[in-house]
Design brief:
heterodimer, A: 375 residues, alpha/beta, Peroxisomal Thiolase, Chain A, domain 1, nine-stranded mixed sheet, two-stranded antiparallel sheet, 14 helices, 11 strands, 38% helix, globular, B: 354 residues, 2 domains, ten-stranded mixed sheet, 12 helices, 31% helix
Chain lengths: 375, 354
């Protein structure tokens, strides 16, 4: 099986982008990614688009064909939707296409445009990542589960409410250095503590802001890798799993999908988890950030708060929390940031490790996706 | 170059703020908002028009005070323009009722204007134009609203009731003369109410950066550009006041210190009186400013547009302050009501009428 490399990456600034439509955002990211790789759009032979809410909020089914038309290309174009984790799922689809010889140069676009609508509508659509017939009609949203998890986590491990704000504080520090981040300001404990309660005990700063944004990446096969101008970063493997809904789990603090996906990843590739690995975890709510660190084995159960200060290469762009959460594009932002980090050109950081892991989940961990990168 | 508006000025001003106040904390409690929501909006309480008050009655009161301060006979007024987004009649001018009730000349121009929160400000511009062209001697510009908000919407914290009115006439007789007025308008859908709809809709965050902030900074910058004035040339700055925070933030964007904004900031205690919002702020400043001081006024209306006006206070202002109730009088005259009384007063409770 041939190796597959990321040849180029491109991101737009995350935020409420009122003066651009989703196509403009997507094209901006695509232009940057193609320029980065030094590849012409005519060389793209496969397109995968990840957008969680194009149908429900942009009234656009089959967004991949529409974006192919926008680019003036006639390649196979598929849309991928696994909710919040769509970005890594799209990465896997593109990876498979290149590995299978169906593509030499695959383009991945993650795009989300939410700010066209009032937050009630956005939040309603966002809650549809859960099981609508069971959870949706009962008015349960992802945030309510996150609040329950946080309560249980604090109780079980004796973690204080203030400690949990460390996540947001750390993420904001990183976002300050990320030119593409939405919330580029420092956060202190006082401000976090006094922010509005969103779903008790979760407050505003425990919650990743849903936002607009687009991120793109170009994958190439081994033959083309030598022709590109950027330092290649290899996509070694992806793995994923679904898991029972949270209310059927024996222990709601177990991230079952993440656990299974990690097992699957480890069957295909060897790598060492530790505090020094470049890692992007899904932190739609701060509690998920801690749980992910613990489930992935970066630190022990209940030790996330203690560990986070040492994790220099964790969510280098600020995570969903502070970079922002343009849902279908979020884990592609994670990919792009990680690729730049591995090329030593992100946030002024120098990363010496040779592997990096991207973690993404959807809803109350209905699924989990992992991608392992190496240089 | 002499600007035509330089020939005109505010001869008299008047406001009306209903007596009743609803605490923002009551709204937060009823609808389950976080208790910090009012402070995040910079709002303590809002003025609530009584069950028998509307934008006509309030507009009339404000206008009668303006005429008293102007010290002219009502018959000398040849235009009545009313800016409101809460007209008691969808069809039937408020200006005719107010004009006749005041005894204004029947040889008058009269119309109601609608431009969300800045129709009253456009009324000012129109009267200024008519006076400066010599078409009329004096005219009345009124901004009056009993603003509606969908119960439970964040808008409900601020949407309130109040009125302001100005008699505008020749600069020689002015309490404050106009130095320059400019307007900046675009098609921006930040806030609207459809025909037949009881409550307005708004674009949440979209009402901020691309609407309020963009338009006010644009109109004020245009004013500075055309006049050569700089932020430090102004002694006071009054902006549209949709909440207690935006006016301070837009001032800081424009390089205007908050000390110049606070004297005219009334929203924290009476809410957003829509068409009267910035104009009540201006009235309050007129009641304390010294001769020669320069006031920047920049109302804003959704949809969207902003006017930027530069006014210079004359030595005639202070003598007119006590000719009618002052803004301070209205701010301190208050009776607290609960949400139920508010719901009744603002016709939020639907009932059969016979």
């Amino acid at each position: 099986m041939g190796k597959v490399f990321v040849a180029g990456v491109g991101m737009t600034k995350v935020g409420r982008i009122f003066n651009k439509g989703y196509k403009e955002l997507a094209m901006e990211a695509v232009d940057k990614a193609l320029n980065d790789a030094g590849i012409a759009v005519s060389e793209v032979d496969y397109l995968v688009v990840s957008s969680a809410f194009s149908d429900s909020l942009l009234n656009q089914v089959d967004i991949s064909s529409i974006l192919a038309q926008e680019m003036g290309i006639d390649v196979p174009a598929i849309s991928v939707n696994t909710g919040e984790s769509s970005g890594v799922a799209a990465l896997e689809a593109a990876l498979n296409a290149v590995r299978a010889g169906k593509s030499n140069t695959a383009l991945i676009i993650g795009v989300e445009k939410l700010s066209e609508f009032p937050s009630a509508k956005i939040n309603s659509s966002f809650s549809h990542v859960l099981d609508y017939e069971i959870e949706g009609i009962r008015g349960i949203a992802p945030i309510n589960y996150a609040a329950l998890l946080l309560k249980e986590y604090m109780k079980r491990y004796g973690v204080k409410r203030d400690d949990i704000f460390q996540w947001a504080i750390e993420m904001h520090k990183r976002a300050e250095k990320n030119p593409y981040a939405y919330l580029r300001f420092a956060l202190d404990l006082d401000k976090a503590r006094n922010s509005q309660v969103i779903s008790s005990p979760l407050t505003l700063y425990d919650v990743a802001p849903l936002a607009d944004g687009a991120a793109a990446a170009v994958l190439v096969n081994e033959d083309l890798q030598t022709t590109i101008r950027t330092q290649p970063v290899e996509i070694v493997a992806t793995a994923s799993a679904t898991a029972p809904p949270i209310y059927l789990r024996n222990d709601m603090l177990d991230m079952l999908a993440t656990k299974k996906a990690l097992e699957r990843l480890r069957t295909t590739v060897k790598f060492k988890m530790g505090k020094d690995i470049a890692l992007q975890v899904h932190d739609s709510f701060s509690i998920y950030g801690f749980l992910a660190l613990e489930e992935l084995g970066v630190c022990g159960r209940g030790e996330g708060v203690k560990a986070i200060g040492d994790l220099q290469y964790l969510n280098v762009g600020g995570g969903l929390k502070a970079r922002g959460h343009p849902v279908g594009a979020s884990s592609l932002y994670a990919l792009d940031e990680t690729v730049l980090l591995m090329r030593d050109s992100f946030s002024g950081l120098r990363y010496d490790g040779d592997a990096a892991l991207i973690h993404s989940i959807s809803g109350a961990e209905n699924n989990a996706w992992l991608a392992l990168l190496k240089r | 170059m002499d600007r035509p508006e330089g020939k005109t000025g505010i001869i008299g001003w008047g406001v009306y703020i209903p007596r009743y106040r609803l605490k923002a904390s009551d709204i937060a409690k009823l609808w389950g908002f976080d208790p910090t929501t009012p402070s995040s909006l910079g709002i303590h309480e809002k003025a609530v028009a009584a069950v028998d008050e509307d934008s006509i009655t309030m507009g009339w009161y404000a206008a009668s005070s303006a005429i008293k301060r102007a010290g002219i006979k009502p018959e000398k007024i040849e235009a009545v323009f009313v800016g409101s987004e809460s007209k008691p009649y969808a069809v039937k001018p408020s200006g005719t009722v107010i004009g006749d009730a005041l005894g204004v000349s029947r040889k008058r121009l009269t119309t109601d204007l609608e431009f969300a929160c800045r129709a009253g400000s456009e009324a000012v511009r129109l009267v200024v134009s008519l006076v400066s062209s010599g078409t009329i001697g004096y005219g009345l510009a009124i901004g009056s609203d009993t603003a509606q908000a969908n119960p439970g919407d964040v808008l409900e914290f601020t949407a309130s009731s109040g009125a302001a009115a100005f008699v505008i006439g020749p600069a020689e007789d002015a309490a404050a003369r106009f130095e320059a007025v400019v307007t900046y308008v675009t098609d921006t859908p930040d806030f609207w109410r459809r025909e037949g709809s009881k409550y307005p809709m708004h674009g949440e965050g979209f009402t901020g950066e691309p609407a309020y902030f963009h338009h006010i900074t644009s109109s004020v910058n245009l004013l500075m550009e055309e006049t050569g004035l700089r932020p430090e040339d102004f002694d006071y700055a009054v902006f549209h006041q949709p909440n207690g925070k935006y006016p301070l933030r837009v001032a800081s964007k424009l390089g205007i210190p908050k000390e110049k904004v606070l004297p005219g900031l009334v929203t924290p205690w009476i809410g957003n009186t829509y068409n009267a919002s910035a104009l009540i702020g201006l009235s309050k400043v007129l009641e304390e400013a010294k001769p020669g001081q320069r006031i920047l006024v920049a109302p804003f209306g959704s949809g969207a547009g902003s006017d930027a006006m530069s006014l210079i206070v004359t030595d005639k202002a202070s003598a007119r302050v006590n000719e009618a109730p002052t803004v301070e009088d209205f701010l301190s005259r208050k009776t607290y009501i609960d949400y139920a009384e508010y719901a009744k007063s603002r016709h939020i409770i639907w009932r059969n009428w016979g």
